[in-house]
Design brief:
Keywords: Glycosyltransferase, Membrane, Transferase, Transmembrane, Transmembrane helix. The chain contains 23 helices and no strands. By secondary structure, the protein is mainly alpha-helical. The chain has 2 domains: 376 residues, no CATH class; 77 residues, no CATH class. α8 packs antiparallel against α9, α13 packs antiparallel against α19 and α21 packs antiparallel against α22. The relative contact order is 0.11.
């Protein structure tokens, strides 16, 4: 392992990426240090007071931490954008040394978050509260963190939980509750230790995401470097999955690893792992219908009835379905894979529900997540628009408009996802593109969305042979999304001056990636080995 790290470090030096590595790491370190004054800190029992550092949490101390935090975010985004332009300029070959170099870069940027306070969200405290509820013998599907209090006594953990979720049941699956109960049992209700264990779990999941993203690209014969750039080195992923410690990290990691296994033709194992991801958060279930298409494509390939083609040819070739297999045989394969996958998923979910004693209460609890309102989703935008238009004519209240908009958009969401699933069925590459579009539809038309929801897409979108314009758009949107939540977890989307400033940053990143580095011919000869993809604008 030490030799591999040394080789990867030497490759970073050869590719002239070391300045990016250390400046990006400095950004992560600034964020982590600033988090203790500006982040989503502990309501009581912080270790800052005994060290006489509690002044960092208010007044000028907190303002200083906020400047340091956003300076670190800008450093991280800036060096991520520089890395992207470097890759666009040099078109490096996908070899073991180069991929290992980007893996090492991603890990180096990730390490400083180990010492960070929770940032951009207080969800980790909700997770620990849910584990405490389960450990007490109650069900987090029936009661919220308020049950942890006793007459005349409010527990510190309850105060740490965001006000939005103190009386709300959990919408998460049985594996999530089982893991949180285990962490609470290990730490014996020690909040700091519990947060640290969740942080370690999220970092381990990020390592899994890094492996899975480049392995998916390898199976699709696309660029592992762009897969790592979109997933492992992406500031949005680092800030929210590790800094914010969302259980999205575990769900996304399991889903991505499952997809990687399916692409390696380990279909049953892949479906099982994806189901584990769904047992964290039900969103991962959306991947399973697309896995059916990948499995069917492999069956046809094994039967030597599917033409062998490059990833781009597979997507564009409209004749790949004109095989010698009979219609009945194809239908038989479809029924067998769909039913087999469904039975396996149901069995795994049933075992987890029984093992953790949670049942299926999370299905009813999903409705509680709609209480949060922000305009990252189309229903909320529509509700604001309808309410504004009807304000002078005694129109519907915002609450009524929101309920109606959410119902309509839920219907639209179902109408869109089904045709996407049917259309993107020809090849594994097409299936994953369809999955990415389905997740995008879900993010846009769902009752609510948060910036970290886009990790569902980012974990594999870089492996989909995107053109230069698509990569620039992804970079701009990710950069903008890094500023939509304040370090203490408060949504910043209704501070319109702040939103405009974030949009300006996104535009700058988009334009920056439109230009290649000025490089001498000698540098190009040394670095540019071959162009694996045609990045056209």
């Amino acid at each position: 392992m030490a030799h591999s790290a040394s080789t990867a470090y030497s490759e970073l030096r050869r590719l002239n990426l070391l300045p990016l590595v250390w400046w990006g790491m400095a950004g992560s370190l600034f964020i982590s240090l600033a988090s203790w004054g500006a982040g989503a800190g502990y309501a009581v029992d912080s270790w800052l007071a005994p060290l006489h550092l509690d002044w960092l949490c208010y007044g000028h101390g907190q303002l200083l931490c906020q400047f340091l935090f956003w300076g670190g975010v800008l450093l991280l985004i800036g060096n991520w954008a520089r890395l992207g332009r470097h890759l666009l300029t040099h078109h490096y070959e996908d070899n073991t040394r180069t991929v290992s170099a980007l893996v090492l870069l991603s890990l180096i940027w990730m390490v400083p978050f180990l010492i960070a306070n929770p940032i951009l969200s207080r969800d980790v405290f909700s997770y620990l509260a849910q584990g405490s509820i389960q450990r007490s013998g109650a069900s987090a599907y029936d009661v919220g963190p308020n049950v942890l209090n006793s007459p005349g006594h409010i527990t510190p953990l309850y105060l740490d939980v965001s006000g939005d979720w103190r009386n709300t049941t959990t919408p998460y699956g049985p594996l999530h509750l089982g893991l949180m109960e285990l962490i609470v049992f290990i730490t014996q209700d020690h909040i700091h230790a519990g947060v640290f264990l969740v942080k370690l779990l999220c970092m381990l999941c990020m390592v899994g995401i890094i492996w899975a993203s480049q392995d998916i690209a390898k199976s699709l014969k696309t660029s592992s470097l762009w897969a790592l750039w979109c997933a492992g080195a992406n500031p949005l992923m680092l800030l929210h999955l590790i800094g914010g410690m969302h259980n999205e990290a575990l769900m996304v990691a399991l889903m991505a690893i499952g997809l990687a296994l399916v692409l390696r033709r380990k279909h049953v194992l892949g479906i099982a792992v994806i189901t584990l991801g769904a047992a964290i958060k039900a969103t991962a279930f959306i991947a399973l219908p697309f896995v059916i298409w990948i499995w069917l494509a492999h069956i046809r390939q094994d039967g030597k009835t599917l033409q062998k083609a490059t990833p781009q040819e597979q997507e564009d070739d409209s004749t790949v379905e004109n095989t010698s297999e009979s219609y009945g045989k194809i239908v038989g394969y479809f029924i067998a894979t769909a039913c087999g996958g469904a039975v396996l998923s149901i069995a795994i979910f049933a075992v987890l529900s029984l093992a953790t004693g949670t049942g299926l209460g999370f299905i009813e609890a999903l409705e509680g997540s709609g209480k949060v309102i922000n305009w990252l989703t189309i229903p909320t935008v529509l509700a604001h628009f309808i309410h504004a238009m009807g304000a002078n004519i005694d129109g519907p209240s915002f609450a009524s408009a929101l309920v109606g908009a959410r119902h309509i958009c839920s219907l639209i969401m179902g109408i869109l996802i089904i045709p996407i699933w049917i259309h993107y069925r020809k090849t594994p590459l097409a299936a994953l593109r369809g999955l990415a579009l389905s997740f995008l539809v879900l993010c846009l038309f769902n009752s609510l969305a948060f910036p970290w929801y886009y990790s569902w897409i980012l974990v594999f979108v870089g492996a989909l042979a995107l053109n230069r314009t698509s990569l620039r758009i992804i970079a701009a949107l990710c950069s903008w999304n890094c500023f939509t939540v304040l370090p203490n977890g408060v949504i910043a989307l209704y501070n319109y001056f702040w939103v405009i400033a974030a949009i300006v940053i996104g535009v700058i990143v988009y334009r920056y990636l439109g230009k290649e580095e000025t490089t001498s011919s000698a540098d190009l000869e040394r670095h540019c080995l071959r162009t694996p993809h045609n990045f056209t604008s």
